[in-house]
TrEMBL record:
Species: Nocardioides turkmenicus
Entries under Pfam families matching the protein: FCD, GntR
Native organism taxonomy: Bacteria, Bacillati, Actinomycetota, Actinomycetes, Propionibacteriales
InterPro entries: GntR_C, TF_FadR/GntR_C, Tscrpt_reg_HTH_GntR, WH-like_DNA-bd_sf, WH_DNA-bd_sf
Identification of the protein by name: FadR family transcriptional regulator
Domain HTH gntR-type: 16-83
């Protein structure tokens, strides 16, 4: 029985990986323009191209359809949709766009959006954050300091991402908190595509610390101002960065 369960679990995981692989491959082709709006796909074609079963092809398309990248029409097939139909807030759509040639423009677009909500979230967090949020923000800043000194950019990214997720959760607004994945993809894209300094800017860390202190001290205006400065510093660093390889 245990062996049968293990085989079933392993088979399920393998199928899930196939779904992800096909989904990612087609999704990247769509957002890059290799599959332009109006292009028509078929399940048979997907099966042949990626050497997968019909259920795997169908599930991959179902996910892409939920993202607004494709539409399925009877007697027409699977049609690629124009950009204005995409769910541009979907973390995978963001990631695929960052993997393409227009990643710098996408990052700048995300930065502009971020400027519209994260300073407000910081202000609200200063009014509403609980003691556990104060502690989590302080720990994230301490981790950023350690990892910046060691040059471990992946660990720094993890601490930076944790900081912003905690802040958004601390603001007490579920809709603002839902932007956590968007900010995480922005930060990851900047790091993984070498669009941030090899050594994190000490000023950026100081600003994160200032946000944490303002939130703890109940200073809404200070928290908002410091968060706006973080976003401005990141945008300036992005504009100054060399084009990635």
């Amino acid at each position: 029985m245990c062996d049968d369960a293990a085989v079933t679990t392993s088979s399920g995981e393998a199928t899930h990986r196939l779904h992800q692989s096909v989904r990612d491959a087609i999704g990247r082709e769509i957002v890059s323009g290799s599959l332009p709006p109006g292009a028509v796909l078929t399940l048979e074609g997907i099966q042949a191209t990626y050497d997968v079963s019909r259920p795997v092809a169908r599930e991959s398309i179902r996910v892409l359809q939920a993202m607004g990248l494709v539409a399925t029409r009877r007697r027409v097939g699977i049609t690629v949709l124009p950009r204005q139909e995409w769910n541009v807030f979907d973390p995978l759509v963001i990631r695929w766009r960052l993997d393409g040639e227009g990643r710098r423009e996408q990052l700048l677009s995300l930065s502009e959006l971020r400027r519209g909500f994260e300073p407000i979230a910081a202000r609200l967090a200063a009014e509403r954050a609980a003691p556990e949020h104060h502690g989590a923000l302080a720990r994230s800043v301490a981790d950023m300091v350690v990892h910046a000194a060691s040059g471990d950019l992946e660990a720094y990214l993890e601490a930076d991402t944790a900081f912003h997720r905690v802040l958004l959760n601390a603001c007490g607004n579920d809709m603002l908190a839902a932007f956590g994945d968007l900010v995480a993809e922005l930060l990851a894209g900047r790091t993984h595509h070498h669009l941030m300094p090899a050594t994190p800017n000490p000023t950026a860390i100081e600003l994160h610390e200032k946000v944490a202190l303002c939130v703890r001290n109940g200073d809404p205006a200070g928290a908002e101002q410091a968060m706006r400065a973080i976003i401005d510093e990141a945008a300036e660093a992005l504009a100054a960065a060399d084009d990635p390889p």
